[in-house]
UniProtKB/TrEMBL annotation:
Residue ranges, annotated region (Disordered): 367-401
Protein name (record): Histone deacetylase domain-containing protein
Major place of residence: nucleus
Record-annotated Histone deacetylase domain positions: 28-322
Length: 687
């Protein structure tokens, strides 16, 4: 299995700059690249990556996404005078040319293709290309928005042609709409393009009607273009995660890509003069982690925008550190998305309802009167210039007047041991796992407590010692000696209760208990809010009275992969991220029906929580799942599930009723604005 993270960078791509006064272009500077690479070096991340050399793209590669006439025109720019360059530039929008930019643009494409080759040939698992000029705005016959050639569009065509890739996912988290990528693939069902971007009802650059939510693609590509328009600034971490949980991830898993590209623009981070958003750099660690479970882990991040040099460098480091497999930082203070974000989410889900099975149950229609549109119309009536009407213009001045301050992301230190296991000596696990040492004897107090609480009469020595091993793994995670653990126990229900009790008594942080399969979980586990239980099973639960005990019922139980993943992505993950546990307890009950690939996916996705502190419990007789579990805990990519079919309608309706009931307590479960929720409630009442 491939491992390692590629870093593609060369200082040569800094050797061009703006040669005349242009307020729209002054923020695109060579330092964007150098500060990003320097930060990776200072954090010790660059040396941990596999350095991949760059190369120049060939004409044939450029022509995968651009016209021959445009290529020939750009080829002439190295020989132009300053006046000729300015004249040439004026035919395009918000871009500048330099005698060396054609050379650098070819290097940017070549660097991106080198990354694709490294990932697809198994030289590395994933990677990032720090390139300049960026690419996602350039179109078939036009430069645009600082972009000369479309690096990611060319790379997607190249991957399909060179490696026979059938399905490509492109996630564009830049704050500007990557219209060049959209136009390149809007009629192509083999490429799923997702973009969130400042839009403000077409008041923000590039001011295109095609950037709105209802531009879903054309002809065979209908449904494969997803635009999430931000109609106000100030979006936060919760808004970004909500879009992932309720739009991108369900559709991406149903699509099942073979390769993932990220148009990694960090002008969507706090402090950026273009974006004016409030999402902190550490959120990109979580967004990256959530994408790593797709396509067998094959992910290529390619730098696009980012104009605050501090937040840019921090965001690049957070992204690369997650690609390297370091534990994601603890999330905190997550809550529901703002009303404007909910309006956008509601509109997108409604627009894509006809195309994706995971959205078939969506009830709320598009928002007819967005809360922000009245403000925008009032501005126009009063003659107020829409902020960002031209790329780079006006925003920088405002940023200079109002300095934004944020905390530097905390250090992400990994414990010395990644995964420790409590398993029989004759059971094979990956060599990278450590085994619990028998020398770690429990105290007499712990032994007596275990006998009193979990055994009637005399306890069998093996059963007693298995619980001691579970406690030992907990304590090591608490002391930051190990990141996660795995235990095979005689009775998983007893071990689960033991672990939950010990966590509540000895840990200061909250516990998330994820329980797959039928079984009873005592209510006392959650009565003080120190634990959140999410159970997915085939058994209808008794009436749930606590917000901390959530039961998801699937008619076919966990064997229904489509229904299971819908529950995980749209219910479990939003609940888990908002709860922000200090430790995750993952329990698999014998006969649960969960398949190896789905189990690996769930185990991998949950690693983004609690700084990776997860304890997985399996029962004796489930030895065939040990290897899969250990590999996922170690950070190996989860196997692809393949394109998911439609969940059972009864399950979708039940999950929707559950989500609606819980969303009053858990903000990240919301996926519709206030009026949309009223429509949903009416729809459920009619059912």
């Amino acid at each position: 299995m491939s491992s390692g993270t590629a870093l593609v960078y060369d200082e040569e791509m800094t050797r061009y700059k703006l040669l005349w006064v242009d307020p729209a272009c002054k923020i695109e500077v060579p330092e964007r690249l150098t500060v990003s690479h320097t930060a990776l070096q200072e954090e010790g991340l660059a040396e941990r990556c596999v350095s991949v050399p760059i190369r120049q793209a060939t004409d044939a590669e450029i022509l995968l996404a651009h016209s021959e006439e445009y290529l020939e025109a750009v080829k002439k720019t190295p020989h132009m005078s300053l006046d000729e360059l300015r004249t040439f530039t004026q035919q395009y929008g918000d871009v500048y040319f330099h005698p060396n930019i054609y050379h650098c643009a070819k290097l940017a494409i070549g660097a991106t293709l080198q990354l694709v080759d490294s990932v697809m040939t198994g030289k590395v698992r994933n990677g990032m290309a720090l390139v300049r000029p960026p690419g996602h705005h350039s179109q078939r016959s036009a430069a645009n928005g600082f972009c000369v050639f479309n690096n990611v569009a060319i790379a997607a065509h190249y991957a399909k042609k060179q490696y026979d890739i059938k399905r490509v996912l492109i996630v564009d988290w830049d704050v500007h709409h990557g219209q060049g990528v959209q136009f390149a693939f809007e009629d192509d069902p083999s490429v799923l393009y997702f973009s969130w971007h400042r839009y403000e009802h077409q008041g923000f650059w590039p001011n295109l009607r095609e950037s709105d939510y209802d531009s879903v693609g054309k002809e065979k590509g209908a449904g494969f273009n997803i635009n999430v328009p931000w109609n106000k600034v100030g979006m936060e971490n919760s808004d970004y995660l909500s879009v992932f949980f309720h739009v991108l991830l369900p559709i991406a898993y149903e699509f099942s890509p073979d390769l993932v590209f990220v148009c990694a623009g960090f002008d969507s981070a706090i402090g950026d003069p273009e974006g004016h958003m409030c999402a902190t750099p550490d959120i990109f660690a979580h967004l990256t982690h959530l994408l790593k479970s797709l396509a067998g882990g094959k992910l290529c991040a390619v730098l696009e925008g980012g104009y605050n040099l501090t937040s840019l460098a921090q965001s690049v480091c957070q992204t690369v550190q997650t690609l390297l497999g370091d534990p994601a930082p603890q999330t905190s203070e997550l809550n529901g998305p703002c009303e404007s974000a909910l309006e956008s989410i509601q509109c997108v889900r409604s627009a894509h309802k006809p195309y994706w099975a995971c959205l078939k149950h969506t009830v709320a229609p598009p928002v007819s009167e967005p809360s922000t549109k009245r403000c925008k119309l009032a501005e126009k009536e009063e003659g107020v210039q829409a902020e960002g009407g031209q790329k780079g213009e006006g925003d920088g001045q405002k940023a200079e007047e109002e300095e934004v301050v944020w905390m530097k992301p905390p250090s992400r230190l990994a414990p010395p041991v990644h995964t420790e296991v409590a398993l029989p000596a004759d059971l094979e696990v990956p060599d990278r796992c450590d085994r619990v040492r028998s020398s770690l004897a429990p105290t007499l107090e712990i032994l007596q407590r275990l006998r009193d609480n979990f055994f009637e009469g005399s306890a069998e020595e093996d059963a007693l010692m298995s619980l001691c091993s579970v406690i030992a793994l907990f304590e090591k995670m608490k002391k930051q000696e190990i990141r996660n653990g795995l235990a095979l126990v005689p009775d998983v229900s007893v071990a689960m209760l033991c672990a939950a009790q010990h966590a509540r008594m000895s840990l200061t942080n909250r516990l998330l208990l994820v329980y797959l399969g039928d079984g009873e979980i005592p209510t006392y586990v959650t009565e003080d809010g120190k634990a959140l239980v999410v159970q997915i099973s085939s058994k209808e639960p008794e009436e749930q009275k606590s917000r901390y005990q959530v039961s998801v019922t699937l008619l076919k139980g966990c064997s229904d992969v489509a229904g299971l993943m819908q529950a995980v992505l749209c219910l479990l993950l939003p609940l888990a991220y908002e709860y922000d546990p200090g430790l995750v307890l993952l329990v698999r009950v014998p006969g649960s029906g969960v398949g190896k690939a789905a189990w690996a996916q769930i185990t991998s996705l949950l690693q983004g929580l609690a700084q990776g502190h997860t304890l997985a419990l399996l029962q004796e007789g489930e030895e065939e799942a040990v290897g899969t579990t250990a590999a996922s805990l170690l950070g190996d990519p989860a196997p692809s599930l393949g394109p998911l079919g439609a969940p059972l309608p009864e399950d979708m309706e039940a999950m929707e009723r559950l989500r609606q009931r819980l969303q009053t307590h858990w903000g990240l479960l919301q996926n519709a604005a206030a009026k949309g929720k009223e429509v949903e409630e009416k729809g459920q009442n009619q059912d």
